[in-house]
Specification:
Strand content of chain B: 5-15%
Number of domains of chain A: 3
Shape of chain B: globular
Order of helices and strands of chain A: HHHHHHEEEEEEEHEEHHHH
Oligomer: heterodimer
Number of strands of chain B: 8
Distance between the termini of chain A: 33 Å
Number of strands of chain A: 9
Number of helices of chain B: 11
Number of helices of chain A: 11
Structural class of chain A: alpha+beta
Low-confidence stretches of chain A: none
Distance between the termini of chain B: 38 Å
Strand content of chain A: 15-25%
Order of helices and strands of chain B: HHHHHEEEEEEEEHHHHHH
CATH superfamily of the largest domain in chain B: Butyryl-CoA Dehydrogenase, subunit A, domain 3
Chain lengths: ~375, ~400
């Protein structure tokens, strides 16, 4: 019984944290002006992050989501912009599900840091259920083509390839891979709440794609959801730190506002929400990495993590802004940067309400089975 | 990370499970009912506790020198989980086992350990806790019960309140003021009191649940041998603070969650049961959200408990998540009991003893009992202050 990371896992986390502390930060984030930052990309590749889930035969570290989760948390804490997270997650999908030619073409490029990937999933007017998409894949002979529109694709205009969720002829959702540029594929910037994640609208008009299949989509959806949960823990942590530091030094009525119970209790509530959700985020990453778990077990762990971390992140960001008072509402202070990234992630891959409903279905199924 | 137990640990679990199946009263969990009268129920539970001891199932992780099994924390936790899973009778000597014993093991003299630990283990002596007073609850250090040294004895005068099981206890650990001239935290002592000593009056208090688990206890010139002082004179606050931290250990939290899990299971079962119009409470998506939220609450507690537990097993200091434990489970349990009443509908108002009460009236009773949880062992307000000040470093 050991619910703790290994020394190596902590060392990886420390190297990421240390790099970001020295070479990134919110000032650099603002200076990047919502444009792809090649220096940051090179720096993260220098740590080998893009190779985490790539098999050894392609020069990768052959690690697992359990090894990667602390890095995702650090990305959240430092508001690291895409495409590193998606590159890591999609590399696993390619390694596990892509045809051999695509694996041989893409995985070395990922390891080399020359390929940048994004998961194109969200759509305008989409259903609450992240398994349902409107983008359609049609098949002519061996060739697949995509039709539809995706939004909020992270750093789409810096990507060299996209993993795309699209409806298969049998009605299920499958995962597809397209290169950029491609015929019929247009990328435009979304105007969105979090410009720093460089969200893109991608239109597909008869765009050629390679089919990775339905299990690939299910897997990437699960890992993306778990990664979103981990990032939200990092964001929430940063928001709490910001709030506590501000409350210690801002004085009113002759004392630091942190000495007032209302402020103390808000911060205690934030810590409680974050620390409990953190356990679920780490567990979901383990569940994704551990091969003995069933698909249903993984889905359960992911839903618990996504719902709880979404709620914790929302609470932390909202209350951090509140504790900052008037200055929290200014563009110049950093709180809104955390809040906006958090808001995007909160609603990605199914919101807390949808994930709770999935949990409810499972516990009711178990109850019905017990009664029967 | 690894969430599996070793083969030996799984074998240990099976051994306990089998023992319980063979040794719980026949019809346990179905036809067998614990006595309704409080005193009889206490005697029944005490009998069970002594039976556990006679079979060697006491003090699993206690040192053998004091009569324990010298087992591991994991075995201790597995044992408690299995008791919870079987919904075994609750312990009546919780204060003795969970508070007195660890305190004496950390701060007692060898003579005190030899005198008291074996009889706590065997449940031959039941303990109660003399901390809170009518004017000293959250501000415990302001307490006024006075212990004056007179020759070889302390003379105790004052009053304690909320003293659970005082009416059954043979012993009490009392926090009393031994020096009124110094700042309040510095003038307290931790003293062990024989409850048969002349001058003690116990008055039961009726709780909103209809039970009288706790009491007021009055001390009129009660004489206590000096040798019953634990630690140094006027060092009682420090000792009392360590006593309180034993209440928060993850090895206690994990079994508690098994019991709460059983409560949630019964709520979900009822939610899935058709009502007189054919609909089920679970047909309502808003109610399903609450059921899921309670399930997630429990899962977060379990996982967070395992995180703390893992650090404890490695001998590492527990992280900030441990101080959140009591705050989290007390509030989540209140949410759970409210959801239970929502599932039960108006029938939820029926209490134990009423033939139409759902779940034998458990929902109504547990709702009432749950209101105390955010108050005892440090109120939620105090817990939040402690977290904000000691964990986050916000100014006092």
């Amino acid at each position: 019984m050991n619910f703790d990371f290994s020394e190596d896992q902590y060392l990886l986390r420390d190297s990421v944290r240390s790099y970001l502390s020295d070479h990134w930060g919110f000032t650099r984030l603002r200076a990047a002006g919502a444009r792809f930052d090649p220096t940051l990309w090179q720096g993260l590749c220098g740590l080998g992050l893009q190779t985490l889930l790539v098999p050894e035969t392609f020069g990768g570290a052959a690690l697992s989501l359990e090894d990667a989760v602390l890095s995702f948390e650090e990305f959240g804490r430092a508001l690291v912009p895409p495409p590193m997270t998606d590159t890591i997650l999609v590399s696993e999908a390619i390694a596990r599900f892509a045809p051999e030619t695509l694996r041989a073409a893409l995985l070395p490029a990922i390891t080399a840091g020359t390929a940048r990937l994004a998961f194109a999933h969200a759509e305008p007017g989409a259903a609450a259920d992240p398994h349902h998409v409107g983008t359609v894949a049609t098949q002519t002979g061996e060739a697949w083509h995509l039709h539809g529109r995706k939004i909020l694709v992270p750093a789409a205009d810096a990507a060299t390839a996209l993993a795309v969720s699209a409806r298969l002829p049998d009605g299920r959702t499958g995962l597809f891979l397209c290169h950029l540029p491609s015929p019929g594929l247009t990328v435009t910037r979304n105007v969105a709440i979090d410009p720093d994640s460089m969200p893109g609208r991608v239109d597909f008009e008869d765009t050629p794609a390679t089919c990775l299949g339905h299990p690939a989509f299910i897997r990437l959806l699960a890992t993306s959801t778990a990664a979103a949960a981990a990032q939200m823990i990092g964001i929430a942590d940063a928001a709490l730190d910001m709030a506590v530091n501000y409350a210690k030094q801002r004085t009113q009525f002759g004392q630091p506002i942190g000495s007032f119970q209302a402020i103390k209790h808000k911060c205690a509530n934030m810590l409680m929400a974050i620390e409990t959700a953190r356990s679920a985020a780490y567990y979901a990453a383990w569940a994704a990495a551990d091969t003995a778990n069933t698909a249903a077990d993984l889905e359960h762990a992911v839903s618990v993590a996504k719902a709880s971390s979404g709620d914790a992140c929302r609470l932390a960001c909202n209350d951090a802004l509140q504790i900052h008072g008037g200055v929290g509402f200014t563009w110049a202070f950093d709180v809104h940067l955390l809040m906006k990234r958090g808001k995007l992630l909160e609603y990605s891959f199914g919101d807390a309400t949808w994930h709770r409903e999935r949990v409810a279905q499972r516990i009711l199924e178990t109850a019905d089975a017990t009664a029967a | 990370m690894d969430f599996r137990y070793t083969d030996a640990e799984e074998q240990f679990r099976r051994t306990i499970r089998n023992w319980l199946a063979e040794n719980l009263p026949p019809g346990w969990g179905t036809t067998f009912q614990e006595p309704e009268d409080e005193a009889e129920r206490f005697a029944f539970r005490l009998g069970w506790e002594r039976k556990l001891h006679a079979a060697g199932w006491s003090g699993i992780s206690w040192p053998k020198a004091y009569g324990g099994r010298g087992g591991t924390l994991v075995e201790q936790t597995i044992f408690q989980e299995e008791l919870a899973r079987a919904n075994a009778p609750e312990y009546v000597n919780i204060i003795g086992r969970n508070l007195t014993a660890p305190t004496l093991m950390a701060h007692g003299t060898e003579a005190q350990k030899q005198r008291f630990l074996p009889k706590i283990m065997s449940s031959e002596e039941i303990w109660c806790q003399g901390f809170s007073e009518p004017n000293s609850g959250s501000d415990l250090a302001s307490l006024r019960t006075r212990a004056v040294l007179d020759g070889d004895s302390f003379v105790l005068n004052g009053q304690k309140i909320w003293t659970s099981f005082a009416q059954y206890a043979q012993w009490c650990f009392v926090l009393a003021r031994t020096d009124p001239t110094v700042p309040k935290h510095q003038g307290l002592s931790f003293i062990l009191l024989d409850m048969t000593t002349p001058g003690i009056t116990i008055r039961p208090l009726l709780q909103i649940s209809g039970e009288s688990e706790f009491n007021e206890v009055f001390f009129d010139d009660v004489r206590i041998p000096k040798a019953n002082l634990v630690g140094e004179l006027n060092q009682g606050w420090r000792i009392a603070m360590t006593t309180l931290t034993y209440e928060r250990g993850p090895e206690e939290a994990l079994p508690r969650l098994v019991r709460i899990g059983r409560d949630l299971d019964s709520i979900v079962q009822l939610a899935a049961t058709p009502r007189s119009d054919g609909t089920r409470p679970a047909d309502d998506p808003a109610l399903r959200q609450k059921l899921a939220a309670s399930h997630i609450d429990l899962e977060l507690m379990r996982l967070t408990g395992l995180r703390s537990f893992s650090r404890l097993l490695k001998g590492e200091p527990i992280g900030p998540e441990a101080s959140l434990n009591k705050l989290y489970w007390s509030e989540m349990y209140q949410r759970l009991t409210e959801t239970a009443l929502q599932v039960a509908g108006e029938s939820g108002a029926l209490m134990p003893g009423d033939p139409d009460a759902p779940a034998a009236g458990a929902f109504a009773l547990k709702f009432l009992q749950s209101r105390a949880m955010t108050i005892y062992s440090g109120s939620s307000e105090i817990q939040r202050n402690i977290i904000a000040e000691r964990v986050l470093g916000l100014p006092r």
